[in-house]
């Protein structure tokens, strides 16, 4: 197994963990809030914080390392490709939203749920924070999943550019020039490797 294949495999696993944690977290939160049971909500919030620490954050680190290392080894320009450029911006935006908005809201909700019990008045305050978390959480998910989609589209565009560049290089090479001249009925200036085999077959 080559180093590039290994990097792609690890990167793919990190993508699954990263996006899976984001999606599952939203489901946990909504299902827990529907019960209106403080103990269930506290348990769900603690699980969210646990998975954020031991799944989400490590997956982000692995994504960054494997992504940039793969691009470096393959000489892929990450910022000149518009798909890659926007994908990186969205990925960073999702991280900023999570760190500056979602994490503080989750911590405040956990403290509220642990200290206020079943008080309907304070539970209303908790739900207000849930609505805020949900709005910003949806935006964070859009950024994260949009980054993945653009990375896939960018890789396809990158392959096309590489193939086009290779084809242009072949056409501009001495062998390519001679082949074009031959097709146009002009004599070749020098033999091309393989002509002797073609002559024998003729």
Account of the 3D structure:
Helix content is 87%, strand content 0%. The protein is mostly helical and 202 residues long. The protein starts with a helix and ends with a helix.
Oligomer: single chain
Could you describe the largest sheet, including whether it forms a barrel?
Answer: none
Strand-residue fraction?
under 5%
Structural class: mainly alpha
**Number of beta strands:** 0
Distance between the termini: 44 Å
Instruction: Please estimate the helix content.
Output: over 70%
Number of helices: 6
Instruction: Report the principal-axis shape.
Output: elongated
Overall pLDDT, averaged? Answer: 83
**pLDDT under 50 segments (min length 5)?**
197-202
- Helix and strand element order: HHHHHH
Rg over CA atoms, rounded to whole Å, is 27 Å
How would you sum up this structure in a few lines?
The chain is mainly α and 202 residues long. It has helices at residues 3-35, 38-74, 82-116, 120-172, 174-183, 195-201.
